Amino acid sequence: MRANNHASPKKAPRPGPRSIPLQVAILRAAVLGLFLIPLFTAPAMSAPAAGGKAVDNLPGVDTSDLSPSEKDSFQQLLEKFPSACGKSHSLLVSLRTDAKCRRTVLAARWVHKLIKDGFLQSEIEERYQTRFLSKKRFDIDITGAAVRGDPKAPITIVEFSDFECPHCRLAEPMLKKILEEFPTVKLVFMNYPLPMHQNAPNAAAAVLAAGKQGKFWAYHDKLFEHQEKLGPADLIQYAQELHLEIGRFQAEMEGQRVRVAKERAMGEKLEIDGTPAFFINGRRFSDSPTVEAMRGWLEEEQAR
Predict the structure, then answer these.
(1) d(CA 210, CA 216)
(2) For residue 13, what are the CA distances in angstroms to 10, 17, 19, 24, 181?
(3) Whole-prediction pTM
(4) Which terminus of the chain has fewer CB atoms gathered within 10 Å of its CB, N or C?
Protein backbone atom coordinates (compact mmCIF):
# COMPACT_ATOMS: atom_id res chain seq x y z
CA MET A 1 0.00 0.00 0.00
CA ARG A 2 1.45 3.36 -0.94
CA ALA A 3 1.28 6.17 1.41
CA ASN A 4 -0.78 9.07 0.35
CA ASN A 5 1.69 11.94 -0.13
CA HIS A 6 -0.98 14.55 -0.80
CA ALA A 7 -2.09 16.75 2.09
CA SER A 8 -5.71 17.10 2.82
CA PRO A 9 -7.25 19.98 0.83
CA LYS A 10 -7.60 23.21 2.93
CA LYS A 11 -11.01 24.70 3.35
CA ALA A 12 -11.54 28.31 2.29
CA PRO A 13 -11.55 30.64 5.32
CA ARG A 14 -14.88 32.06 6.37
CA PRO A 15 -15.33 35.54 7.66
CA GLY A 16 -14.52 35.45 11.33
CA PRO A 17 -17.10 36.46 13.82
CA ARG A 18 -14.86 39.41 14.96
CA SER A 19 -14.65 41.28 11.66
CA ILE A 20 -18.14 42.82 11.84
CA PRO A 21 -18.02 43.88 15.54
CA LEU A 22 -14.68 45.62 14.91
CA GLN A 23 -16.15 47.78 12.19
CA VAL A 24 -19.13 48.55 14.33
CA ALA A 25 -16.85 49.51 17.23
CA ILE A 26 -14.94 51.92 15.04
CA LEU A 27 -18.17 53.49 13.86
CA ARG A 28 -19.48 53.76 17.39
CA ALA A 29 -16.25 55.44 18.56
CA ALA A 30 -16.49 57.98 15.78
CA VAL A 31 -20.09 58.80 16.62
CA LEU A 32 -19.28 59.01 20.36
CA GLY A 33 -16.43 61.39 19.58
CA LEU A 34 -18.85 63.79 17.94
CA PHE A 35 -20.73 64.06 21.22
CA LEU A 36 -17.61 64.33 23.40
CA ILE A 37 -15.87 67.08 21.46
CA PRO A 38 -18.28 69.85 22.60
CA LEU A 39 -17.77 68.79 26.20
CA PHE A 40 -14.03 69.36 26.03
CA THR A 41 -14.26 72.52 23.97
CA ALA A 42 -16.92 74.27 26.07
CA PRO A 43 -16.14 77.94 26.83
CA ALA A 44 -13.96 78.53 29.91
CA MET A 45 -16.53 80.91 31.36
CA SER A 46 -18.84 77.98 32.10
CA ALA A 47 -16.44 76.76 34.79
CA PRO A 48 -15.73 78.52 38.08
CA ALA A 49 -12.98 81.13 37.80
CA ALA A 50 -9.60 79.93 39.06
CA GLY A 51 -6.14 81.36 39.49
CA GLY A 52 -7.42 84.71 40.72
CA LYS A 53 -9.35 85.42 37.51
CA ALA A 54 -12.38 86.49 39.52
CA VAL A 55 -10.52 89.59 40.74
CA ASP A 56 -9.66 90.91 37.30
CA ASN A 57 -11.49 94.09 36.27
CA LEU A 58 -12.99 94.80 39.69
CA PRO A 59 -14.59 98.26 40.03
CA GLY A 60 -12.12 100.67 41.60
CA VAL A 61 -9.43 98.07 42.31
CA ASP A 62 -6.37 97.58 40.09
CA THR A 63 -4.93 94.07 40.41
CA SER A 64 -2.52 94.26 37.47
CA ASP A 65 0.46 94.44 39.83
CA LEU A 66 -0.41 91.17 41.59
CA SER A 67 1.33 87.92 40.73
CA PRO A 68 -0.83 84.83 40.01
CA SER A 69 -0.32 83.53 43.56
CA GLU A 70 -1.12 86.96 45.01
CA LYS A 71 -4.29 87.10 42.93
CA ASP A 72 -5.23 83.70 44.32
CA SER A 73 -4.82 84.99 47.87
CA PHE A 74 -6.67 88.19 47.06
CA GLN A 75 -9.61 86.30 45.57
CA GLN A 76 -9.77 83.88 48.50
CA LEU A 77 -9.86 86.74 51.01
CA LEU A 78 -12.48 88.74 49.10
CA GLU A 79 -14.67 85.65 48.93
CA LYS A 80 -14.15 84.94 52.63
CA PHE A 81 -14.53 88.45 54.10
CA PRO A 82 -18.03 89.81 54.78
CA SER A 83 -19.13 93.07 53.22
CA ALA A 84 -17.58 96.15 54.83
CA CYS A 85 -21.07 97.64 55.05
CA GLY A 86 -22.54 94.86 57.17
CA LYS A 87 -24.39 93.12 54.33
CA SER A 88 -24.86 89.34 54.26
CA HIS A 89 -22.81 88.80 51.09
CA SER A 90 -19.05 88.63 50.66
CA LEU A 91 -16.72 91.52 49.97
CA LEU A 92 -16.26 90.24 46.41
CA VAL A 93 -20.01 90.21 45.76
CA SER A 94 -20.27 93.66 47.33
CA LEU A 95 -17.66 95.02 44.92
CA ARG A 96 -19.64 93.75 41.95
CA THR A 97 -23.17 94.48 43.02
CA ASP A 98 -23.30 97.07 45.83
CA ALA A 99 -22.08 100.39 44.44
CA LYS A 100 -23.70 102.24 47.37
CA CYS A 101 -21.23 100.65 49.81
CA ARG A 102 -18.31 103.04 49.35
CA ARG A 103 -16.33 101.31 52.11
CA THR A 104 -16.14 98.18 49.93
CA VAL A 105 -13.62 99.62 47.46
CA LEU A 106 -11.55 101.07 50.30
CA ALA A 107 -11.55 97.70 52.07
CA ALA A 108 -10.49 95.85 48.91
CA ARG A 109 -7.69 98.32 48.21
CA TRP A 110 -6.51 97.91 51.81
CA VAL A 111 -6.44 94.10 51.48
CA HIS A 112 -4.57 94.49 48.18
CA LYS A 113 -1.91 96.63 49.85
CA LEU A 114 -1.39 94.19 52.71
CA ILE A 115 -0.92 91.35 50.23
CA LYS A 116 1.66 93.41 48.34
CA ASP A 117 3.38 94.20 51.65
CA GLY A 118 3.81 90.49 52.32
CA PHE A 119 1.26 89.91 55.09
CA LEU A 120 -0.01 86.37 55.59
CA GLN A 121 -3.68 85.63 54.96
CA SER A 122 -4.17 84.86 58.66
CA GLU A 123 -2.69 88.25 59.59
CA ILE A 124 -4.92 90.06 57.11
CA GLU A 125 -8.00 88.24 58.43
CA GLU A 126 -7.27 89.41 61.98
CA ARG A 127 -6.67 92.99 60.84
CA TYR A 128 -9.82 93.03 58.68
CA GLN A 129 -11.91 92.02 61.67
CA THR A 130 -10.50 94.90 63.72
CA ARG A 131 -10.55 97.46 60.94
CA PHE A 132 -13.82 96.87 59.11
CA LEU A 133 -16.03 94.62 61.21
CA SER A 134 -15.50 95.79 64.77
CA LYS A 135 -18.01 98.40 65.89
CA LYS A 136 -16.13 99.27 69.07
CA ARG A 137 -15.56 102.96 69.65
CA PHE A 138 -14.00 104.50 72.73
CA ASP A 139 -15.53 107.47 74.49
CA ILE A 140 -12.65 109.89 75.07
CA ASP A 141 -13.23 113.04 77.08
CA ILE A 142 -11.43 115.80 75.14
CA THR A 143 -12.80 118.67 77.21
CA GLY A 144 -10.12 121.32 77.66
CA ALA A 145 -7.63 119.62 75.31
CA ALA A 146 -5.77 121.53 72.61
CA VAL A 147 -7.27 121.34 69.12
CA ARG A 148 -5.50 121.84 65.80
CA GLY A 149 -7.71 122.40 62.76
CA ASP A 150 -11.38 123.37 62.60
CA PRO A 151 -12.87 122.77 66.07
CA LYS A 152 -16.22 122.01 64.39
CA ALA A 153 -14.76 119.40 62.00
CA PRO A 154 -16.86 116.19 62.07
CA ILE A 155 -13.89 113.83 62.20
CA THR A 156 -11.65 113.88 65.26
CA ILE A 157 -8.16 112.40 65.56
CA VAL A 158 -7.12 112.06 69.18
CA GLU A 159 -3.37 111.69 69.57
CA PHE A 160 -1.68 110.45 72.75
CA SER A 161 1.92 111.61 72.57
CA ASP A 162 5.23 111.91 74.44
CA PHE A 163 7.64 114.78 73.70
CA GLU A 164 10.69 112.55 74.17
CA CYS A 165 9.32 109.80 71.93
CA PRO A 166 11.19 109.73 68.57
CA HIS A 167 8.23 108.06 66.83
CA CYS A 168 5.97 110.90 67.97
CA ARG A 169 8.33 113.40 66.42
CA LEU A 170 8.38 111.44 63.16
CA ALA A 171 4.57 111.45 63.09
CA GLU A 172 4.37 115.25 63.14
CA PRO A 173 4.87 115.87 59.38
CA MET A 174 2.26 113.19 58.65
CA LEU A 175 -0.31 114.87 60.89
CA LYS A 176 0.30 118.29 59.39
CA LYS A 177 -0.07 116.85 55.89
CA ILE A 178 -3.33 115.15 56.86
CA LEU A 179 -4.78 118.36 58.26
CA GLU A 180 -3.89 120.14 55.02
CA GLU A 181 -5.64 117.46 52.94
CA PHE A 182 -8.73 117.02 55.12
CA PRO A 183 -10.52 120.21 56.20
CA THR A 184 -13.14 117.95 57.77
CA VAL A 185 -10.59 116.68 60.33
CA LYS A 186 -9.39 118.15 63.62
CA LEU A 187 -6.49 116.94 65.77
CA VAL A 188 -6.79 116.74 69.56
CA PHE A 189 -3.55 116.41 71.53
CA MET A 190 -3.27 114.39 74.75
CA ASN A 191 -0.14 113.96 76.86
CA TYR A 192 1.02 110.43 77.54
CA PRO A 193 4.56 110.68 79.00
CA LEU A 194 6.19 107.27 79.12
CA PRO A 195 7.94 106.11 82.32
CA MET A 196 11.36 105.74 80.67
CA HIS A 197 11.40 109.39 79.52
CA GLN A 198 12.50 111.54 82.46
CA ASN A 199 11.87 114.93 80.84
CA ALA A 200 8.51 114.04 79.27
CA PRO A 201 6.29 114.88 82.30
CA ASN A 202 7.88 118.36 82.65
CA ALA A 203 7.57 118.98 78.92
CA ALA A 204 3.90 117.97 79.06
CA ALA A 205 3.22 120.39 81.91
CA ALA A 206 5.14 123.12 80.07
CA VAL A 207 3.14 122.83 76.84
CA LEU A 208 -0.11 123.04 78.81
CA ALA A 209 1.21 126.12 80.63
CA ALA A 210 2.10 127.71 77.30
CA GLY A 211 -1.43 126.96 76.17
CA LYS A 212 -2.76 129.09 79.00
CA GLN A 213 -1.12 132.03 77.23
CA GLY A 214 -2.39 131.01 73.80
CA LYS A 215 0.85 129.42 72.59
CA PHE A 216 0.16 125.69 72.93
CA TRP A 217 0.91 124.66 69.33
CA ALA A 218 3.87 127.02 68.92
CA TYR A 219 5.41 125.60 72.11
CA HIS A 220 4.45 122.06 71.05
CA ASP A 221 6.35 122.49 67.78
CA LYS A 222 9.42 123.85 69.59
CA LEU A 223 9.53 120.85 71.91
CA PHE A 224 9.57 118.41 69.01
CA GLU A 225 12.03 120.57 67.08
CA HIS A 226 14.46 120.45 70.03
CA GLN A 227 13.54 117.02 71.35
CA GLU A 228 17.06 116.34 72.59
CA LYS A 229 16.96 119.43 74.84
CA LEU A 230 14.04 119.25 77.25
CA GLY A 231 15.70 120.08 80.57
CA PRO A 232 14.19 122.67 82.98
CA ALA A 233 16.37 125.50 81.64
CA ASP A 234 15.47 124.59 78.06
CA LEU A 235 11.75 124.77 78.83
CA ILE A 236 12.18 128.28 80.22
CA GLN A 237 14.22 129.32 77.20
CA TYR A 238 11.50 128.22 74.77
CA ALA A 239 8.95 130.19 76.80
CA GLN A 240 11.13 133.27 76.51
CA GLU A 241 11.53 132.80 72.76
CA LEU A 242 7.75 132.78 72.44
CA HIS A 243 7.50 135.92 74.59
CA LEU A 244 5.53 134.26 77.37
CA GLU A 245 5.24 135.86 80.79
CA ILE A 246 7.76 133.67 82.62
CA GLY A 247 6.44 134.01 86.16
CA ARG A 248 2.98 133.01 85.06
CA PHE A 249 4.41 130.24 82.89
CA GLN A 250 6.27 128.67 85.80
CA ALA A 251 3.24 128.87 88.07
CA GLU A 252 1.01 127.33 85.41
CA MET A 253 3.50 124.50 84.93
CA GLU A 254 3.00 123.36 88.50
CA GLY A 255 -0.76 123.64 88.24
CA GLN A 256 -0.93 121.70 84.97
CA ARG A 257 0.70 118.57 86.40
CA VAL A 258 -2.76 117.49 87.51
CA ARG A 259 -3.98 117.73 83.91
CA VAL A 260 -0.97 115.72 82.70
CA ALA A 261 -1.79 112.97 85.20
CA LYS A 262 -5.42 112.99 84.10
CA GLU A 263 -4.54 112.60 80.42
CA ARG A 264 -2.05 109.88 81.26
CA ALA A 265 -4.73 108.02 83.26
CA MET A 266 -7.13 108.27 80.31
CA GLY A 267 -4.52 106.65 78.09
CA GLU A 268 -3.99 103.85 80.59
CA LYS A 269 -7.72 103.19 80.65
CA LEU A 270 -7.56 102.86 76.86
CA GLU A 271 -4.72 100.32 77.34
CA ILE A 272 -2.21 102.37 75.35
CA ASP A 273 1.13 100.58 75.44
CA GLY A 274 3.18 102.95 73.29
CA THR A 275 3.23 106.30 71.57
CA PRO A 276 2.05 107.81 69.36
CA ALA A 277 -1.43 106.30 69.73
CA PHE A 278 -4.33 107.53 67.60
CA PHE A 279 -8.10 107.25 67.78
CA ILE A 280 -10.29 108.34 64.85
CA ASN A 281 -13.78 109.21 66.00
CA GLY A 282 -13.21 106.78 68.84
CA ARG A 283 -11.85 103.95 66.68
CA ARG A 284 -8.37 102.74 67.57
CA PHE A 285 -6.03 103.37 64.62
CA SER A 286 -4.13 100.10 64.16
CA ASP A 287 -1.84 100.74 61.18
CA SER A 288 1.59 102.34 60.89
CA PRO A 289 1.35 106.14 61.23
CA THR A 290 1.93 107.07 57.59
CA VAL A 291 0.08 109.56 55.40
CA GLU A 292 -1.19 106.74 53.18
CA ALA A 293 -2.52 104.67 56.07
CA MET A 294 -4.11 107.60 57.88
CA ARG A 295 -5.64 108.83 54.62
CA GLY A 296 -7.28 105.44 54.10
CA TRP A 297 -8.84 105.46 57.56
CA LEU A 298 -10.17 108.99 57.11
CA GLU A 299 -11.62 108.25 53.67
CA GLU A 300 -13.33 105.24 55.16
CA GLU A 301 -14.73 107.33 58.00
CA GLN A 302 -16.06 109.86 55.48
CA ALA A 303 -17.73 107.01 53.56
CA ARG A 304 -19.85 105.91 56.52
Answers:
(1) 5
(2) 9, 12, 13, 21, 99
(3) 0.76
(4) N
